[in-house]
Amino acid sequence: MRKYGVFIGRFQPFHKGHEEVVQQIIKDGLIPFIIIGSACQSNTDKNPKSFSVRSKIIQDRFPTAIIEPMYDFICDLEWATEVEKVMAEKDCVIYYKRKEEDCTYGDALHYIEHLLPNVPKKIVTTLTKISGTTIREACAGVPIESFSSYLTNGFLTIKDAGGYFYTERKGKDSVAFILRDVTRNDDIYCLINEYKPPIYGYEVTAFGGSLDCDLSLADIVRQEVREEAGYSPISVEYLGKRFVSTQMNQYCHLFIVDVDSSRGFDTDPQCVWEAKSKPIWVSAEAIKTCSDWKSQCILLKVS
User: Fold this and answer.
1) Which of 22, 55, 173, 268 has a CA between 20 and 30 Å from the CA of residue 2?
2) Does domain 174-302 bear CATH number 3.90.79.10?
3) How far apart are the first and last CA of the chain?
């Protein structure tokens, strides 16, 4: 009979600490069996990602892993019964990280140590001392889709400066663009009315993206146009670059993108921040008086 290493968690997001546990399961010769908790929860500060997104992130990293959803229950015993059903007729060992000496009610490990006493277990000591809560707090203001999928391959690194956690991004340079409608002759452009978690408000700004992959600048812009704005780009024009930070030698590359506004399509937001952010068509005069320097620079170059 095949033997399975069971790893239970919400994985919001799936980070390096989680990855080390799964790697240990594989090293021990077991099949990774990942149970994703709070599977019905998404688009909240605590559970920003849906089950399908979390599942894909893990499956992409570990293609041989078996992944099952687990929903929330009011009664803890109901949760334990459901977990036992999922593991039924399988030879399983539960792998987990234990953070505290005493496992008390409210601790996620309460569910494993107290409610599943008869299932074999193995405690894993990981090198990465980080939690999903710390990551979500450290990345406040960064759309979760921008970091969660990449925390296991170096897109963002969580740094610890004497107890203060912050993120260091791999792609320090970026692109910014606004859209122009080829079917209109007036000075109307499309920006994004972006939800900003730190201020819990909105800011009209140029679309943007970081240079975190091997695509060309123009291809990154084309990808962002489809994903953020919901349009197929007709043409992409490079307008030059501007310093964002002289100390870090950080540049932002500026673009104007032509689209047909009558042929837009729905985007697929992957988190609460993206779901609240929407494209908005505004006049050139509105851009001149807004606080976004990137859209103003772009407008100056095309005027």
Assistant:
1) 55
2) yes
3) 70
